[in-house]
User: Fold this.
Amino acid sequence: MLRGEDIEGSDMATGWAGEGAVHEQIDATIQDAIARARAGLPQGTGRSRCEDCDAPIPPARRKAVPGVRLCVGCQESRDREQAGAGRGARHRLR
Ligand SMILES: [Zn+2]
Assistant:
């Protein structure tokens, strides 16, 4: 009987930990996004100049990309870099 309880207990613990980990990951992603939005990315505006090359970012782009920080050229090259570096890094805008 003790063995039976043991196996059942460990099974439950494993299943629970797995689910918890997934939820934690999702929570962290959402919280990270919220934190970033609060930390200096006003929604709907973004930067007036590119963070990388200091080129002016057109108002239309700032409207189309809320919280934009890079000009089209820099954003594209960065996207390409991050796509090559693998998934998961994509939402990390530094
Ligand atoms: Zn740029």
Remarks:
- Residues 43-94 form one domain.
- The chain has a mean pLDDT of 74.
- The radius of gyration is 21 Å.
- The longest helix spans residues 2-38.
